[in-house]
Prior knowledge:
Blueprint: H1 7-17, H2 36-42, H3 44-48, H4 66-78, E1 82-86, H5 89-101, E2 107-111, H6 116-125, E3 128-132, E4 136-137, E5 142-143, H7 148-157, E6 164-167, E7 174-175, H8 178-187, E8 192-196, E9 219-222, H9 224-227, E10 235-239, H10 246-256, H11 263-298, E11 305-306, E12 319-320, E13 324-328, H12 336-347, E14 353-354, E15 358-362, H13 369-391, H14 410-414, E16 418-422, E17 435-437, E18 442-445, H15 453-464, E19 469-470, E20 479-483
Parallel strand pairs: 2-3, 6-8, 8-9
Antiparallel strand pairs: 1-10, 4-5, 7-12, 9-10, 11-13, 13-15, 14-15, 16-20, 17-18, 17-19
Amino acid sequence: MSQYETPLFTGLLEHMKKNPIQFHIPGHKKGAGMDPQFRHFIGENALAIDLINIGPLDDLHQPKGIIKHAQELAAEAFGADYTFFSVQGTSGAIMTMVMSVAGPGDKIIVPRNVHKSVMSAIVFSGATPIFIHPEVDKDLGISHGVTPESVENALRQHPDAKGVLVINPTYFGIAGDLKKIVDIAHAYHVPVLVDEAHGVHIHFHERLPMSAMQAGADMAATSVHKLGGSMTQSSILNVREGLVSAKRVQAILSMLTTTSTSYLLLASLDVARKRLATEGRELAEKAIQLAEMIREQINQIPHLYCVGKEILGTTATYDYDPTKLIISVKELGLTGYDVENWLRQMYNIEVELSDLYNILCIITPGDTEKEADILITALRHLSEEFRHQADKGIKPKVLLPDIPSLAFTPRDAFYSDTEVVPFEKSAGRIIAEFVMVYPPGIPIFIPGEIITEENLAYIKKNLEVGLPVQGPEDDTLQTLRVIKEVQSL
Ligand SMILES: Cc1ncc(COP(=O)(O)O)c(C=O)c1O
């Protein structure tokens, strides 16, 4: 079969053309039984392929037909032995990776700045996380990946670990020396699991960081929906057999996946793979060139800094993805969140994320010079409007969350006897819930960690500037759920 073929999408179209009389779910029956306004908006074509795993359309839980062929083509395109489609985002694929290597009491080496899905899987599986501290960029106020040295250290101390999980590239597009990390872990016969949520495109262009499969990793959870042109929520899980078993991966993915898998999402993965495999390099080249042009222009604007190749040179900043525009705004005396709102109000621009010091804009093959020009014009205006603050030299001190100590495994903490205490009085207690800023969804606290004053201050700072702090049952953050302390008599 050739990479120009789309067995899943084509199979759906053929089925649709037969126009079968449907006595099965979805009950909207090609849209006829649906709210007319929504039907007109979404369109008949989309509703006609909003189907379910009836015989001719194969079954994601046990693929033998069109889904199997589509997954095989994806495996070939991504250089994997097997590719599994996920309709539950990269979060579902990440949970599958973790749960297929680590069970109750098993150790798994992970960076502390992991996405919440990694920690959720650790709670579900009962595994014990061995944290590696990511390298922190104190100037930008962001975390990068982990270094080969820190992976080697962790493995020397925990050679019985069942897996090493790394984020490559990070949300901000920074990559570590993945090949070296894989070689180190493999010398200990430990599989490497890659959170490749932000790197579907990197496999297809030599100027982008090395992909997980190119580096010889054992598994990679990859968001095709983020940067690869498929629909939101559709991702893939690439597997190289040897240290992990594809059959176990399939079984666990199936345990975690809805039985009502969306064929719209699955078909969009099939066509995105075709485009990446047949035109991915050209498309990435276009995005890289546009992003480089924007970066150059932004760096001519006073008081703004768009990160470029000068960030490279450490083992944590081994490579980077130039299509990610990290724009540091702190010199203007503004937070990233202020700038996000200003851009929304003044220019109808929506950024990918903002934090205390930066905004992140992503450039993809879907962008053109038109959007680029609007962004540059808006940033020039921003700099002009707030330069008086920069001229006064108001530069915020970069505040970063501490990594608290883990007193209980996340699962033990999550299922312990708990109580609610006032936020202000929670320092020193062991937290039983997650607290994170979303995006990027990296926990400030995970269940089992000892609450520190510094991290409470970091949460308050994020709340003060309006950033979305999520996770606790009490979303006003007046209280936190902590492990009950036994009173001594
Ligand atoms: C680093 C990282 N990993 C995993 C995910 C989860 O991906 P998804 O939203 O596809 O579930 C995200 C989402 O933003 C992420 O930033």
